[in-house]
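Hello,

Following up on my earlier ticket. Below are the two sequence lines again, exactly as submitted.
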Amino acid sequence: MATLAMTTLDPQSRAARRGWSDLTIRNAFIIPTIVFLIVFNIFPLLYSLGYSFTDFRASTNAPANFVGLANYRALLNDPFIWSNFAITAKYVIVSVTGQVVVGFGVAMLLNRTIPFKGLITTLLLLPMMLSMAVVGLFWKLLYDPSFGIINYALGLGRFEWLSDPDMALYAVAITDIWMWSPFVMLLSLAGLSAVPKHLYEAAAIDRAGTFYTFFRITLPLVAPILMIAIIFRTMEAFKTFDLAFILTSQPSAELISIRLYKMAFQEWQTGMSSALAYIMLIMVVGITNIYVKYLNKVKER
Amino acid sequence: MTHIELRGVQKWFGSVQVIKDMNLEIAGNEFIVMLGQSGCGKTTTLRAVAGLETIDEGDILIDGKPVQHLKASDRDIAMVFQSFSLYPHMTVYENVAFPLRATGMSRADIDTSVREVARVLRITDLLDRKPSALSGGDMQRVAIGRALVRKPKAMLMDEPIGALDAKLREQMRAEIKRLHMKQGSTTIYVTHDQVEAMSLADRIVIMHEGVLQQVGTPDEVYARPQSLFVAQFVGSPVMNVSEATLKDEGGAVRVHYDPGDAGFEFPRELLGKLNGHGAGGLSLGIRPEGVLVSREPQAGYVPVEAHIIEPLGSHDIVDLKVGEGMLRARTPAGFVPRPGEVVHARIDPAQAHFFDTGSGKSLGIRL
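Thanks for your patience. The regenerated structure is below:
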């Protein structure tokens, strides 16, 4: 048991002379953390759950009336909310797929002996270390129709990446892919280098071609760690807010989190937005659970 | 019936030469064992034949065709690895079927082949299991099955049973022999265990520091070692080898194992056969069973003191103190009752080996 393993305070120590006990010191570390968690995480979580059953508006002094499940019913029957969800789903699929393809591909390229491998890997990780808002701001410049370098490089003239209703969402996804592919790359690289070399030798002896080896040996063995990368990226992509908010205001690129923000802080529908936040929470937990189930199945071998 | 040939193969790892001018011919259906200490280049040679390692010079021919520039997958050779190298995410069935699926064989044919091999190797009950749920012996059976299933031109085995415990090793050894007799494909088997080599091989190839030392049947390498290295590497317990000096004593020759000892008697014809050879010093090698021990004094026997007795059940290995050195003899169990006993020993001239100490080469003298 953990308590038995805990060593007692040395009676000669400074802490002991001040009259502190093991328990005092332990509490001094744990209690602030727990208080912080309760005040800033658990309390708002429960409080907003309460709000989600009311018609409360934070902008007025009017008392909150209990409305039961009316908010949830209204949201789930609202075709605009569903269109936001559809946009988000499209965004998640495009963005995560792109990150996995690019990240895994770069990892495959790096998984060999090349000069300056460490330096190249570190440089490739840089986008991931930037702030979302900063990335959003300078990609907005890159995408700029009149002086943006992307139009210049691709020779697209004055193509409006961020104002084009069909393109805006993809433009945000491209930025997200640029920023987060290194994360998938890093995890894939760890997975790839963990595949024993002798399995590739055995496959070569067994006359397996390059593609057969990739799909039957490499991919299945990297799958568990790749799965973890996908779980993380899906959760993050589902909640994307800052990047999309800074880059575009196109309704066709209005992700569910942007809708939520507008509902809560522009329309001040506090009760309604709390309900929407809960719907999102349940969805993210649900999707993650599906992945985790699959991950456990993959890991069984 | 695949014929493999190595011609003047050289291989360097950086500045270290790991294979030095290797020439070897392997006949169809032959079971060749490459024997040597770790780091002697035997595994590198095997991997070069498999195509997992490139060679710097020379030719490797399979059925007369040079293959040194072909990829492993184009050589149609199967290999069993020391680490088994089973695909951890596949069942036993999928592992065995892998080489067939990789070449796009039809589903029905694959099933027939896999079940046939599983029956031969007695792994039918394990087909649905994952490798992680298998014992070492079973893993090795599966690895052999994966190699056998496609009926390859040749089988290469890299210390396939080295990772198993002693009892299982003996069992698998017999099984590999049984399989080879049944399937009969050209096999190259690498090991550092001379018992394995002796019991399995049609011919043994002994390597040392990248140089091929001797090629021959187990009997040949045991009875006629061409060098001190082979003499001491093959056989357990190890052959007694010591520098020796000759003294002509009219009716016979005395070979002194050590300046201080009484010397062992040899027939006079030894002098003629030696004929001034052994200029770099003479070494006498005698296997423990060539040391004859008697408890009563006999003509030609020298009194010696038993020092250490290792009882092995079927026989004993007795260390006899000869001058400053030790001579190991093989005696019937319990023949020498206790250490410290004085017994009488002589060397059987017919089983003695003479070597040039300087070059380490055998002088080829048989008495």
